[in-house]
Amino acid sequence: MEIIKDIHEMTEAACRIRSMGLKSSLVPTMGYLHEGHLCLVRLAKKISDRVIVSIFVNPAQFGPNEDLAKYPRDIERDISLLEAERVDALFYPEAKAMYPAGFQTFINVEALSGTMCGASRPGHFRGVATVVAKLFNIVQPDTAVFGEKDFQQLAIIRRMVEDLNMPIKVIGHPIVREKDGLAMSSRNVYLNSNERKTATVLFESLELARTLIKQDEHGADRIRDAVKRHILSRPGTKIDYIFIGDTETLKPVKTIKDRGIIALAVLVGSTRLIDNIILGPV
Ligand code: PAF
User: Fold this and answer.
1) What is the pLDDT of residues 110-169, one digit of tens each?
2) Buried b vs exposed e over 91-102: b needs ≥16 C-beta within 10 Å?
3) S-S: 181 plus which of 14, 15, 203, 215, CB 3.0-4.6 Å?
């Protein structure tokens, strides 16, 4: 696996792939890789000739009181995992190269960034959209693969690609879960053993919502109340949001039947976890 830190070198490597007539996929990550990331890599390998993974803990998407400094990092382990998957190139730039002095251009995907995680993490999606646009320009992939756990992020990136005519196909991969249902996330490492047990409440409450819908309860308020009660029955949890809405516009709906998303952000101890289920075709 080629390990590329330099932006121009990455673009040259991407041009070489293109000039050979090969199709490439990018899997953007912030590292501390887990099985969920590796599933994205495997999907990318299936659909393209060359796979590039980026690892960049993007300062622009962290708020001033968020976990940028303590975000988990283990580049040596990440490299071994990617080599085992036979990834072709790792792009691993430094923050000062991605955001040199004088940097002042940001991308704001307006309405989609204002709800859900965007409401509690102001500026987060501006940072995400900007770095993803930069990665797309540097790597120029044919396809980019993202996990559906960050469903709002995926919707925002799809919108950006459409609005800015970026010639890239964006593919979502279903959430990869631990055996007990907890969605895989690099941040799960913050949980102590009690919190780790408590964290299963996110998926349980989404399953509860799904069961209620199957039992013909379609009122979003009533489903939200049941989900809320279930989460709060577990000590040490604090709800950031329970969102029931449309998968494309991310606008709340009053009733949910065949299609839609139920998404949660819950603090377990001091760790903020997100999860969602999508009903019907995405
Ligand atoms: O989902 C992530 O890990 C990040 O938000 C991303 C897409 C790599 C941008 O920094």
Assistant:
1) 999 999 999 999 999 999 999 999 999 999 999 999 999 999 999 999 999 999 999 999
2) bbbeeeebbeee
3) 203
Closest approach atom of ligand 1 to CA 61: 10
Q: Is the CB of 208 under 6 A from ligand 1?
A: no
Class of residue 46 by CB neighbours under 10 A (exposed 0-12, middle 13-18, buried 19+) = exposed
Q: For 186-275, CATH number?
A: 3.30.1300.10
275 touches ligand 1 (CB under 6 Å): no
* Backbone angles phi and psi of 268, in degrees to 5: -110, 110
Topology agreement, domain 2-173 and domain 186-275: no
Cα 246 to ligand 1 centroid, rounded to whole Å: 22
CA dist., res. 120 & res. 116, Å (int): 7
Q: Are 25 and 44 in contact (CB under 8 A)?
A: yes
Three-class secondary structure of residue 42 per DSSP: helix
Atom of ligand 1 nearest to the CA of 132: 9
Q: Which CATH number fits domain 2-173: 3.40.50.620, 3.20.20.70, 3.40.50.300, 3.40.50.10190?
A: 3.40.50.620
Residues 37, 124, 173, 230: which is the catalytic one? Answer: 37
pLDDT digits (tens, 9 = 90+) for 66-89: 999 999 999 999 999 999 999 999
Q: Is 230 a catalytic residue?
A: no
pLDDT of amino acid 230: 98
d(CA 10, CA 17): 11
Q: What is the per-residue pLDDT across 205-221, written as a single tens digit (0 to 9) for each?
A: 999 999 999 999 999 99
Atom 9 in ligand 1: residue holding the nearest Cα: 128
The pTM of the full predicted model, rounded to 2 decimals, is 0.97
Q: Where are the domains of the chain?
A: 2-173, 186-275
Nearest residue (CA) to ligand 1, atom 5: 128
Instruction: Please give the distance, rounded to the nearest whole angstrom, from the Cα atom of residue 192 to the centre of ligand 1.
Output: 24
